[in-house]
Amino acid sequence: MNFLIQPKKYKSLMADDGSRAVMEKTVDFFEDMGKTQLLDDYNKKIWYKEFVDFIGKEQIFAKLLTPKKYADGDEDCRWDTARNSEYSELLAFYGLGYWYCFQVTILGLGPIWMSPNEKAKKKAARLLKEGAIFAFGLSERTHGADIYSTETNLTPKDDGTWVANGEKYYIGNGNEAEMVSTLGKIKDGTDDYTYFVTNYQHKAYELKKNVISHQEYVSNFALHDYPITEDDILSRGPHAWDSSLNTVNIGKFNIGPASIGVAEHCFYEAITHAANRILYGMRVTDMPHVRKNFMDAWLRLVAMKLYQRRSSDYFRGASENDRRYLLYNPTSKMKVTLQAEDVINLLWDVIAAKGFEKDTYFHMAAADIRGPSKLEGTVHVNIQLIRKFMKSYFFNPAEYEPVAPDFSFNDDLFLFNQGSTKGLGKVRFHDYAPVFEANKDLPNVATFIKQIEIFKGLVEKAGPDKMQDMDPSFSLPLGEMFSIVVYGQLILEQTKLEDVEPDIINQIFDFMVRDFAGFALQIYGNHSSRDEQRLFCKEIMLIKAVADDAQYQRVWGKYVFALDGEYAMNE
Ligand SMILES: Cc1cc2nc3c(=O)[nH]c(=O)nc-3n(C[C@H](O)[C@H](O)[C@H](O)COP(=O)(O)OP(=O)(O)OC[C@H]3O[C@@H](n4cnc5c(N)ncnc54)[C@H](O)[C@@H]3O)c2cc1C
What we know:
Layout: H1 17-43, H2 49-57, H3 60-65, H4 81-94, H5 96-113, H6 118-129, E1 134-137, E2 153-156, E3 162-172, E4 179-186, E5 193-198, E6 205-210, E7 218-228, E8 233-236, H7 237-252, H8 255-275, E9 278-279, E10 282-283, H9 288-316, H10 325-351, H11 361-368, H12 379-387, H13 390-395, H14 433-437, H15 443-461, H16 466-470, H17 472-498, H18 502-524, H19 531-541, H20 549-560
Parallel strand pairs: 1-4, 2-4
Antiparallel strand pairs: 2-3, 3-7, 4-5, 5-8, 6-7, 9-10
Helix pairs in contact: 1-4, 4-5, 4-8, 5-7, 8-9, 8-10, 9-10, 9-17, 9-18, 9-20, 10-12, 10-17, 12-17, 15-18, 15-19, 17-18, 18-19
The structure holds flavin-adenine dinucleotide (FAD).
């Protein structure tokens, strides 16, 4: 069994022909293009017009991103988080730049599908059908994450219309987006936030430049007295504010799968290179440290996939009474993207010079992979968010019906109606302990349980004081320790659903135990840690994963080394 996607033996998670066709046509598009052109376009930073044309011709964004209500009877259309995750992984497998075009289209559509403006929604559906791409115009150059300081504005005119002025920076697809959901403030005395729609072709829309050096287009554009009517207004006041955060919530969940796709392609290249390279008369993959790196990389990659898959069930099942996704989402964003960076580092240490070569996918991935953890909230921002749930998660569990794997053909409409972004501390979670207990026969899961118990003691009896809360060198590793528990919980839930072999689970928890100990060491060594906190950390970090060499070799041979030659992109 291969846990990684293999485009040439592609198995979609989706049960319907329409979705499968979307995936298969996309594979064919890239394999027909071939690796030589893919990399040449990347290296020459050529805007991917052929890809945008392909997406339009096959109505792919229309199918993936139009809720049924606006689909005009096209049965392939729905907004399905599981399907969009799968598609993100596939696009990023061929290049993060292609994924980015999809990602910012998703973001651009967020404030539209959340809007009460029916005309704008119908227009978006029509444009999607015609093959349009979209953009999300939130950021401004000098304000970064501080959207309170937004300067773009609408000034009312006597006839009830407005003119928009201001400048946006870092706006993906801003060179060709038919609808740019643009955030501004209304200068009518209220200073209300508003989302309104702009179009790149209008003469009052000045496309200034691509801010980055890449084939994707991350625009800087300016609006000069851009005329706006009621038809262009998507939202106002608190609704507009919530639309920003709720749209980022949707987009954020799409980033983990992209990192996974990148790491998968790199894995194939790396193992096939190393397994066929002979140094000093031996295969490179026979060197113990090389084997260790591949094992670690593969186990981390499988864990990323298991976590992401399971969290999408919670995402799809979200409702106003079940907001657990609000924790699982930043955990995906922070953890999966950082794990992907680790995977690339591990592989690069093995393939060394090969990873620089311009005819490898790897060299492109090595440059791009550090992006996902930083955008739509840095690691820091996501960990601070995650920590808000810690007390509720550990000390106030609630009963929920079990959430089944969700591959239904439903629209995930709650995502466009998430409501207020407040009250995170009140969100409750099902008890994490039973799924760990159910796997405690596996020595490394049992070890991990011990670490959790000590960590829980630390939080309960020696939690951070106010100063430590404000100090990232303390709060970040603390948040990491919490998130690794959440990560482990959902991984275990998914292993049951996929019937993953105990050998693999136990080896995954080998690295999880090591990571847990590593974060404890960071707190232990922190200047501001108190003695009582150090005692808890010392206990955690002295716990060792349980070695099982026979099991390690079994997983290596059956799953990891077996990927030598499994996939190579068409030249
Ligand atoms: C390639 C690329 C594509 C992008 N695409 C888009 C797009 O399509 N649309 C769009 O609107 N934007 C886009 N962005 C902008 C992106 O979302 C910004 O990174 C974001 O607005 C944050 O701004 P900043 O990176 O300048 O960081 P800043 O906001 O300047 O943050 C600086 C530091 O402050 C910290 N910080 C900020 N806020 C907090 C907080 N609340 N709590 C704790 N720490 C905090 C951060 O961790 C960070 O370390 C893109 C950016 C890039 C580079």
